[in-house]
Amino acid sequence: MEVDDERFARHGVRLLLKRDDLIHPDLIGNKWRKLARNLDEAAARGRTIVTFGGAYSNHLRATAAAGRLLGLATVGVVRGQELADRPLNPSLSRCAADGMRLHFVDRSTYRRKTDPDVLAGLLDAAGAADAYVVPEGGSNSLAVQGCTDLGRELRGHADVVALACGTGGTLAGLAAGLAPGQRAVGVAVLKGGFLEDDVRALQEAAFGGPRGSWRVEDRFHFGGYARVPAELEAFAEDFEFRHGVPVERLYVAKALYALVALTQEGAFPRGTTLAAVITGAPFEGARPSAQSSTSR
Ligand SMILES: Cc1ncc(COP(=O)(O)O)c(C=O)c1O
Questions:
Q1: Residues lining ligand 1, judged by CB closer than 6 Å?
Q2: pLDDT at 296
Q3: 170: nearest Cα among 254, 57, 277
Q4: Which residue range(s) make up the domain with 83?
Q5: What does the pLDDT look like over 127-136, one tens digit per residue?
Q6: Are residues 93 and 128 in the same domain?
């Protein structure tokens, strides 16, 4: 959809919103694109799906919902052993209600979960030794390949496509699907400056080499993952008011804010059409704690 916003119009720039938040009520936005091929694979092999996330992970909720919808068993490995003794927060309650078995692990083990020995131990302890493993954030090669559809759908519609990035899997696939001449900008929501290398590695694994034209914008993480300072909150509320589109705070708000700032800086020549991908929707219940949380 095209939005009428003078912050872009005064620079001769058009803004389109790619409403991936409307793809499916439970498998929202990039979650659907990243999970679909993995779900097919797990179902074909008749395996339980194991994946990983923090206490408010959008990815865990989406995986749990997919399990319910497709009749697949799911196990969520949750960062933070201490959470095991507390009542489940609304996000984890939703996962459990969708049939996901939750397995809590301490933060140091969680950090080392990609080490093959640590992973084997984790799967064993979770009672899912032969499970189909989907990494944290869902970004493996099948997920990246699934996200190429997002780029293909945007061919011929925009000069520059922007989206928020966590692991970079969505950007890696999107860029590969765009037409020559179209560019992608990924707005990092985590601090650290590692995203460019990660996107390169994800493209190498998924496609055997670099694809498309993309870059990472590292200036709009607002202090790091799940940091939503008052300025960003006010921006998101104002955007919702202006355009009637719900703005997910941890990712989408940062991408939209970045686009306004870049446009004001003159980063886009007059006549440019921008497309912002709305990769998610707000989850009621996640906000108060998510704002002060640093877990993914
Ligand atoms: C709403 C939303 N937007 C964007 C992203 C970023 O996706 P990626 O990890 O592929 O960079 C996520 C990831 O969890 C998300 O939940």
A1: 29-30, 58-59, 137, 139, 164-171, 248, 251-252, 279-280
A2: 40
A3: 277
A4: 30-138
A5: 999 999 999 9
A6: yes
